[in-house]
Fold these 4 entries.
Entry 1:
Amino acid sequence: QVTFVESGGGLVQPGESLRLSCAVSGIAFSIYSMGWYRQTPGKQRELAASISRFEDILYDDSVKGRFTISRDNFKNKVYLQMDNLKPEDTAVYYCNRGAIPWDSWGQGTQVIVSS
């Protein structure tokens, strides 16, 4: 069974940066597209960024130019560098398979952007 452990969230001011990490186990990590999703109360999870096994990358328009997704196939980890954070980036962030997530989710990591 696939498991995800997200970390790196926190409380920051607008304009600051955070780097999220996600450790993935239980799958052949390198063959899957991976993604970072985010969810705010009352809304569905949305895909913020994804990276394919060939490192083709897609970003939601809301994060394009500010977020950078990357992966380390040796460590089975996926990362999200978030720069110039905005209050609207406040959410719980999760990693999962890109585009078509598995049913299993991690606990997520909370990001709060507030002055």
Entry 2:
Amino acid sequence: QVQLVESGGGLVQAGGSLRLSCAASGRTFASHAMGWFRQAPGKEREFVAAINWNGGSTDYADSVKGRFTISRDNAKNTLYLQMDSLKPEDTAVYYCAGDINYRGRDYHSRQLSAYTYWGQGTQVSVSS
């Protein structure tokens, strides 16, 4: 049974930092693209960041570029999202996602439909 389990969410003041982790079990994602998405109340789930299989290629939504950093430790089968300079508009449930197949050396995707495996989400709340 494949599981992605997020952790590290919480309540933080604007300007603060949080580091999210996503631990995978049941299969290795070492050769697969992974991503972070978020969903605020009343809004659709949206892309935040994505990373290729070895961490050599990344992509960010314009709203988080320069503030968030996605990384991975394939030896630990774990994905990370370092979030700095947090803003109230970053408040959402954050989800990690994993692709089911290797699709190329520099491949990663912004599309929800590109990912087969999803975590249950972790709440991030930023107060002003």
Entry 3:
Amino acid sequence: QVQLVESGGGLVQAGGSLRLSCAASERTFSSYAMGWFRQAPGKEREFVAVRNWNGGTTHYADSVKGRFSISGGVAKNTVYLQMNNLKPEDTAVYYCAARSTYVSRSYIPPSPREYDYWGQGTQVTVSS
């Protein structure tokens, strides 16, 4: 069973930066879309950013546009999230997600239910 392994979370002051990494445990794994969701205590898991490998497109939640940047490896099994100008409201557990089934070039799956592989989560805490 393929696993997604995340790293890079931690504690940072407001205005600081962190870079999250996510890699599939098997090098032969390939996805059609890969990205990040987050979940704060008492809240539902929410979309942060996703890259559609099929169309080469990316999409960001409005709350992180201009501050977060998603990128990935050529093999479509690794994804990164560069987070700049972090705010206390960014505090959450961040989850890497991958979808191994077909996605059309222009479609960005917005719901957690549309992804079939998940990482264990990495905590990001932003202090004010």
Entry 4:
Amino acid sequence: QVQLVESGGGLVQAGGSLRLSCAASGRTFSSDAMGWFRRAPGKEREFVATIRRSGSTYYTDSVKGRFTISRDNAKNTVYLHMNSLKPEDTAVYYCAALKSTIYRGSYRYTQGSEYDYWGQGTQVTVSS
């Protein structure tokens, strides 16, 4: 059974920082990619960042230079370090993982439909 459990969300002022964690159980850390997505109130779920098993990372343009995705294989945990937070970053943040372990080169996995496992989400609220 694969489980993803997010933590680290909360309320922060604009310009502040948070670190989200996604603790994975099962075989998820052999998957080719893990990602972070978010859903803001009244909006569609959107891609935030991906980290490949190779270590390559990809970000949506709105978070480049402010967010960093990383992974600790020893702890089976993926992190999202968020700096210089803005009110528009307010959303529920979800961790996701692929079932596939097949390496796909430089593929970025930016679509939620490509992921097989999801966490329950953690709320991030940025006040102005």
